[in-house]
Design a protein that fits this description.
15 strands; ATPase_NBD; 36% helix; 6-stranded mixed sheet; alpha/beta; glucokinase activity; ATP binding; Nucleotidyltransferase, domain 5; Hexokinase, domain 1; D-glucose binding
């Protein structure tokens, strides 16, 4: 008997703290099926998926399974960066009963989602000319960590190569950036982008701002953001400003590396927390500050993705594309 269309997929977005799971039909995530699980309550990704299936009211078993993880993926094996969990395609199939399985880096999944997001799911930070069809895009994720995913749209397929850009070194523009780089290197062995542009990076920049001001204060990232909003701590505002300008500089560098004429798409909880300060603290100016290429930077639009479930959509869209490609072979 022929398989009913569209493809019925179980999708999961696995972060360092929580995992979100849902069913999708074709590239469309069924919103009513989305569930969130605390990773601390489970022994691994397979355990989460088995619980989701056991508690689901669905009588149709998944034909495909796709998991997006916050960590590197190679040759069908994924390892979370900030949690001692791993999974491969065989284990994913075994846990779900799906005959087709795939594992993506979470930023790859975000990249696969772009063509399927509603217009209301993106807010424009820097406008740009309308892109040509199939123009390349770039996803930049700022949350527990930092990473990117270039996105190349072809006629029937979307290519999203993996990356680990958060572990490259921070750019140095001036003496203060050099002092920050040296401070991070002493504390962490290497001045990685992720040590400044991430959740813990907010705290590192605050500690740096306090040291620069001969202060000995300590705050969590949430407290720093609250103090910045309240205006009751000058070092909190300085650290948020430093974060925004560093993010603009790094994103501008990445745009020159990848030439994403289809747009730069910022994702992640820290991105959304910082967005209200982009205009005030000069994100666009830092993004475009590239010397004689500053004018060229106007070709790249920058947008913030506000859909918290975009990675699930990307998983579903990727599996549907795989099915279509295999059907033509």
């Amino acid at each position: 008997m022929a398989r009913p269309d569209p493809l019925h997929t179980i999708c999961a977005d696995v972060g360092g703290t929580n995992t979100r799971v849902a069913f999708a039909d074709g590239p469309i995530v069924r919103q009513e099926t989305i569930r969130r699980f605390r990773n601390a309550d489970h022994s691994g990704i397979e355990d989460v998926l088995r619980r989701f299936l056991a508690e689901s009211a669905s009588t149709r078993p998944p034909e495909a399974a796709c998991v997006a993880i916050a960590g590197p993926v190679r040759d069908g094996l994924g390892q979370l960066t900030n949690l001692n969990w791993s999974i491969d395609r065989e284990a994913l199939s075994g846990a779900t009963g799906a005959t087709t399985a795939a594992i993506l880096n979470d930023l790859q999944a975000q990249g696969h989602s772009l063509a399927h997001l509603d217009e209301s799911a993106c807010e424009t930070v820097i406008p740009a000319p309308a892109p040509a069809a199939h123009a390349a895009c770039l996803v930049v994720g700022v949350g527990t960590g930092f990473n990117i995913a270039p996105v190349f749209h072809q006629e029937d397929m979307t290519l999203v190569p993996p990356a680990e850009a958060g572990h490259a070194s921070l750019p140095v523009r001036d003496a203060r950036d050099l002092r920050l780089s040296e401070t991070l290197a002493r504390a962490h062995g290497f001045p990685a982008v992720e040590e400044a542009l991430s959740g813990r990076g907010v705290e590192h920049l605050y500690a740096f701002a306090c040291a620069e001001a001969d202060q000995t204060k300590s705050k969590t990232a949430a407290e720093i953001m609250a103090s910045c909003k309240a205006g009751d701590d000058p070092e909190a505002r300085e650290s948020v400003k430093h974060f925004v300008t560093l993010l603009g500089t790094v994103c501008g560098n990445l745009a020159l590396n990848q030439l994403p004429f289809g747009g730069v798409f910022l994702v992640g909880g820290v991105t959304r927390a910082m967005q209200p300060y982009f205009a005030e603290f000069g994100f666009a100016e830092a993004f475009r500050d590239k010397g004689r290429f500053s004018g060229f930077m106007e070709n790249f639009g920058v947008h913030v993705v506000t859909d918290d479930y975009a990675a699930l959509t990307g998983c579903a869209a990727h599996m549907q594309e795989l099915l279509k490609a295999r059907a033509t072979l």
